[in-house]
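Q: Hi! Curious about what Transcriptional attenuator, LytR family looks like structurally. Here's the sequence.
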Amino acid sequence: MQTSNIPPRKAKKKRRIWPWVLMVLVFISAALAGAYYASNSLLEKPVEKKQSEELITAKDKATIMIMGVDERDDDVGRSDTLMIASIDPKTNQASLLSVPRDTRVKIKGHGFDKVNAAYAYGKEKLSQDTVENLLGVNIDHYIIINTKSFKKIIDAIGGIDIDVPKRMHYEDPWDDDGGLIIDFQPGMQHMDGAKAVTYVRYRDEEGDLGRIRRQQDFMRACMDKIVSPAIIPKLPSVIKEVMDSIQTDLTFRQLLEFAGTLKQSKENGLKTDMVPGRPLYIDGISYWIPNLNKLRMTVADTLGVSLSGKYKTKMEADIREYENSIPASASEVPASDTSIGKARPSDSSKNRRREEKADKNKRSEDKNIDREERTRNSEERGNREETSRSDRRQSAPSTDNSGDSAVPTPSTGVSKTR
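A: Let's find out. The predicted structure is below.
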């Protein structure tokens, strides 16, 4: 955690505004410079982290692990929210892959367990290693946000406006300081930090999968707020809260580029997805069992990486190991267990179908336009030739000998031959 180096103010000194104004101007200048002259420092791979040759590496994209951690005074905590962001600063495109916290993974030194347990075993390093082995890709950076920090950041940007899809009510007198109360009416709601953290934590009969969908909607709402002109006056406090609240290996410059790319990607459409899989009951515990083949093919496609034969062989071995690790006693999750929820097509799947349909329509329109252009050119060429023939006929010598057969003029004959 970073601490502020700003010295305490003297009681009798007049408050000076210019340092804050200067900070705003510097931030805006840096953001504008990044937009026009970005050197893409996000693409610089961390030299202190060795890239595994068994995993794929994105050459022209940055991969960032974002974890929301629920830490308590008497508990090291677990990752309550886990997302992998793929950022392309050259094309200003971004995608977000959510990993359900109940995903069953292999954790080095601890066997198979839920992915959120990796943080409790070995903090962010073991979490990153575990997620890399799950996805089959090297992850460049990480961002960790705890519950208290999350509240401060949301308050710093002035809260979030989000459309609550349905009535949400939950009470737990034993949770948090003084108990947890989640109470939202359906419709557009403005949420401060305290309300926002309960919204993203809310889990009902839709389980963790339903919560992930709400978290992805919340991320879009955050992007709307962060890129809005109204945030500019709040930049000094936002910068301070973000830098003091998060734990990351990103530099300040890279954070600026990250924010700038998110701003541009909003216009291009933020793509969201979730680890594909199915729920399963193992030894009385519900897990999310990932479809490793589909997952890794999707990740490779998102990163624009072609899979080598060596990587495919390793992937097949990983899939066999994973499938063999599932005990024969595993069963379907009982209907009464709603902790995970039911999978349904993700927003990104719908977006992909919509984009594919739009591309197909555009190709069809282009073909029609091309066909019409060719027809029009052909008609114009025919009209020009007909006009040329008519002009030549009019300029040819004429006779009054109507009894003789019409003899083609030389120019007419040549035209017909052509």
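A: A fun detail: The chain has one domain: 18-342.
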